[in-house]
Structures are given as C-alpha cells and as structure tokens.
C-alpha cells in the first residue's frame, strides 16, 4: 500500500472540501434552479394560448401523452421539459422561431410574471 496521492484523489478531496464548505454555509456553489411546474400551472400555461393539448404539444414539440400525464398530475416533467416549459412561459415566440414554425401566440401568450 502506498501513501502517495493520485491526481484523481486530490480532485476528489478538493471537491469534498467544497461540498463540506457549502453545507457549513462557508461558501456558495453555483446553481441554476428550474422551477417545478405543478399540474395546475401547466394547464394554465396551455390555456393561456387557447390551444388544445394536441395543438399545444405539436406547436412546442412535446409529446401529447406526456403533456396529458403532467396536466393530470400522474407524471412530473423531467429537467429538459421543465426548462422548455419555463421558456414557453417567458417567451413563447422563441420556441416557435427555434422550431421554424409559422404562427403567432399573440398577446394572450405573453406572461406577466418575470
């Protein structure tokens, strides 16, 4: 057995030190929080655009069955879907443009929240 530290061991030790400092409140680690959209909020988002589940899912590239499951509270959107829903909520035209679709959500789709 050797007492030498490997490069990987040093990196792990440093990372654990950072984690402990964070837990103790001595430092803040960078993070990005993606809001968890509750079922009611997902329904409200879709209804704001006055679209059926099928049309909304098609417009923004979601699976209609997954959207139904989220709206009924049987499943929770994964992180990527939560990010997409957040973008749709804040600036739906970005999604439409990115997907190369024609059409306009109009003023009804604009979020009043920042």
How many β-strands, per DSSP?
0
Mean pLDDT: 83
- Main beta-sheet strand count, sense and barrel state: none
List low-confidence stretches. 106-114
Structural class, from helix and strand content? mainly alpha
- Give the topology string: H per helix, E per strand: HHHHHH
Enumerate how many helices there are, as a single number.
Answer: 6
Helix share bin: 40-55%
Supply Rg. 21 Å
What is the percentage of strand-forming residues? under 5%
Q: Termini separation (Å)?
A: 58 Å
Shape: elongated
Features:
114 residues, 0% strand, 6 helices, disordered C terminus, single chain, mainly alpha
Describe this structure in words.
- The protein has 114 residues and is mostly helical.
- Helix content is 54%, strand content 0%.
- The protein is built from 6 helices and no strands.
- It has helices at 7-23, 39-48, 53-60, 64-71, 79-90, 92-98.
- Helix 5 (79-90) packs across helix 6 (92-98).
- It is elongated.
- The N and C termini lie far apart (58 Å).
